[in-house]
## 1
Amino acid sequence: MSKRKAERSRYTGSNRPSKNDDTLVDLVDVKESAAGMLQGNQLKILGIIGIGALIVGAFLAYKYLYQAPRNTAAMEQMYKAETQFKQDSFALALENPGGGFDGFLDIIDNYSGTKAANLSKYYAGISYLNLGRYQEAIEYLESFSADGQVTPITKHGALGDAYSELGELDNALSSYRKAASAGDNELLTPYYLKKVGMLLEKQGDSAAALEAYKKIENKYPSSTEGMDISKYIARIAS
């Protein structure tokens, strides 16, 4: 009889174990069960660990050995298109910036998944907006993943402008509201708050327009919009 069985044989009749003894036996059982489980499933456990390591390794290789060099190459290609963009040469920035460099559209196609390709979507959207091609502007701006504080504001603000030009005023208002609430920027937030107010006025919602104007007056009094917002407030109040 094993030592463990001998110990258990003492727990019969009048020698029944106390509650503490039961707990001790249960702990022994748990420890032995856990050890047995580990021994019996070592290959499975090692296999799971191995698969996890392969997944992590593949991700790191993809990120640092594939995507990082592609992003670097894309950024090098993008500088010429950015130069044309800054000079308001939007058509050239999109497709033919010169010098054998890719335009924003080629960067989006050739370097998909990189930060440079994502940023090129924003540039492409703004370029199409300035070229009066509002549906294309919406398509690229919607696909752009904004981060930070300023880019979400400008993304939604530009979408508001594109929808407004198309006469889709409800979508324009929704976008302007997103721009106004996407961050707290002293320059851009009051600018889009004013657009919210003006569009609400146009739609006949004076109370909501007044609320937007009052927010500019109270929170951004030193902004360009804040300096003359009193006349917009007076116009509604009159």
## 2
Amino acid sequence: MKNGLFITFEGIDGSGKTTQIAAFIDHLKRLSVSYDLFREPGGTAIGEKIRKILLDKKNMQMSAISELLLYSASRHQLSRESIIPALESGKVVICDRFYDSTTVYQGFGRGIDLSFIERLNSIATDRLVPDLTFILDIDLSERTNRIGVKKLDRLESEDADFQRRVRDGFLKVAKDNPNRFVVLNGSQAVNTISDEILAHFLNLCKRKDYAIFE
């Protein structure tokens, strides 16, 4: 049986990930490609309970290390319980955030040692690495406009300096790993971005010899 493909979407809050994931899934449906969609943190019964703890604004006093370990616990459960089995069955697996968010939010944002986070990411995922990662990039003023009066969770409520470090972190990890990352201008028209994502995905299918028409 063929192995699946693992596609992740990253970016600061308000960057358009949700919209582009929905558009990508529409493309997969038209191509009759079997897929699974997961989100982080969460995606499993245990992970969703952890998600509530992590995003609850009542927990603003949570330490950076506690935050890191909770994200990693949720990710380990998701990887073992859902992502790895789906990939082994040959599906395209889409994840709304994965360990790159931990590298960026807890590493660049919180200042936790990046080498420690890298080791923890590897352990938490059983060394699983996405085949392709899209970063939807917008500037912070655009983020403010898009979020508007939305009720913010604990991470979304962090100050502008934190959000700037997060955005810079995404761009840095993408620059350091050009073979896996695609940075997209999230301010472009939705269809323009969606078409670009599809083109990169189809190119990945060719490189990985992943037959999508079966």
## 3
Amino acid sequence: MSGSNIISFNEALNIVNQKVNAVVYPEHPQGLYVPVQYILSLKSKKVRPVLTILAHNLYKEDVSEAVSPALAWEIFHNFTLMHDDLMDKAEVRRGQPVVHKLWGENTAILSGDAMLILSYQYMADCPPAHLKSLLDLFSKTAMDICAGQQYDMDFEKRTDVSVDEYINMIRLKTAVLLGAALKTGAIIGGAPASDAEKLYDFGVNTGLAFQIKDDLLDVYGNPDIFGKQTGGDILCNKKTFLLINALNLASGDDEKLLLKQITEECTDAQTKIKIVTDIYNRLNVKEIAEKEMDGFYQKALTSLDAVQVENNKKTILLNFAGELMNRES
């Protein structure tokens, strides 16, 4: 493949958007399919299907065989968001009302179920030789994500979550989906098994670094750039990398104050955010998180470097990882 035939991130995104816009839904019952159309129409970066196409493009110029499986990951991802919003009692997604606020909780459950089925249909629209391996990967990833969500819910009731438990949770809930999207493209592209695994590892480690960056931005991000008020995780006592490290490291007055903030009802949001952030600063958890994030980022780069294709073909994935680490929103 010559350099001129390497697809850019935006070119892959355009392919995905065209595929999303071309989805034909049954006319009836509209109550089932309109919410699906709605959530898929919301503006997003569509990172997962784009990664599928970019990974496939490492091995083949014609990416058409990877487009339907790429869309499967986008539909599946949005299915998880629809159900997550319902479980979290969220009101807004991508700046717009969530499905259960517009159509009700029962519709959000049922339309989400329909999206899961639809995602399997699109994944099955792959070269027959790869059908079993892709469906196995898809099913394992889906089960991993369910496990990650359950761990996340379990952690809400605990104050003794370890760092290792947290890393495993975000690996399952967030990171494996990036890895699976990349591995899907590699498999369809005819990549050697070792390359497919290295791309999976690249995706997982990038995903882990991404989530820790997300935890950092929620506390230390610029609200004007971040797009929302910082401190949201603190207000809802979410077990983030920062909070878990603070709980493990705090002692004396800091420990008592931190436990008080996460166990008692909040009466002043800004005061709570300041108290917890000050504790984070005293315990240097920001620096600990940045070091952990960089560690996963370096692992991701090592995995990508080991993929046996020309370096110029990997530049887009390399830049993608770097942009995630340096993002401010």
## 4
Amino acid sequence: MLERGEVANSWRHERWDSLRLLTPNWQSRLPGQRYQGASPDGFMTMPEVVQFISRYSEMNALPVRTHTTVTSLERTDDGYRIVTHDGEIRCRSVILATGACNLAHVPQLRQAVPEGIACFTAFDYHNPDHLPPGGVLIVGASATGVQLADEISRSGRPVTLAVGEHVRLPRMYRGRDVLWWMEVSGVWNERYDQMDDLERARRLPSPQLCGTPERRTIDLNALSATGIEIVGRLSAIHGRRALFSGGLRNQLALADLKMQRLLDRFDAWARTSERDVEAAPPERFEPTRTASTSRLSLDLGSGEIRSIVWATGFRPDYQWLQVPVMDRKGHLRHEGGIVTDAPGLYAIGLPVLRRRKSTFIHGAEDDARDLVEHLCGYLSRTARAG
């Protein structure tokens, strides 16, 4: 196993200070290791995540070569050639476990931001004290965006949140964590080859959840109640003026509708599995509130906004991958983690790789078991052919 930094490197160095996992501690599990602490319904801090992963590596004596940066991976006649800063490796097969969050995805209109406005991504934001004094525009309202909006607003800075497509979820539903419902109802385990629109499922933004000790919901209603201004998707920057989409109401209504359909699915599962008695009665949540009018533009030269945080998602970094397995949008072409255009090449940790839970810590085990089974068959076949 090759790691460019330390074990759990991204958790150590590429997260903001206050971040906690979105998944409750009872759901933090790896093969042979589960959370054993005193707060199963809590949410791990970043130091706790680092400790959890490091302990797993140590207990299993994993052969991790740390501080080994891969600069090139290319196909050879009998397998693959990996070039690192510490030499070359030849092998018959490779598993790409770099995940999907190596680089911040920032739209091109970032280049049009006027001078004097400081820009940050989730990788270089650490805490509100790192921001200039004054108002903050946060672009993106998925998990990262709503968490940062909440934290920065609580620091006393005025916050404007630009909202596009998003997934609204309550933290708690019928007395249980919403991710408990996702797990027991079977939603997390839905397979990639059983989905009607796999590509859309893989593009869905992360749900508006945060892991706080009090397990509070952090949807747009909660944010607007604290004084955060909600505006539409940032669509353009012309000169000093930021322009926002007029489709905010439609985005909010669609997110509310999808949440309600999911909650209905949970309720139906509880009835058919006779688990209704274990949970509180079904709940219905207030629709996302909208102002009678939301502003459609903002003068970035007025001094109202001093910094922008781009919470617009992440993307993988495949600059070192010298194998022609990328599509025209820069996405890895694979079938459930099996890179069909390059025999012996696999991927793990990508969104909805084999199941909806693929990018979560507890989702790794089932995906890994499937891929290892295919890998063993591939190695056996190639050995016989050789």
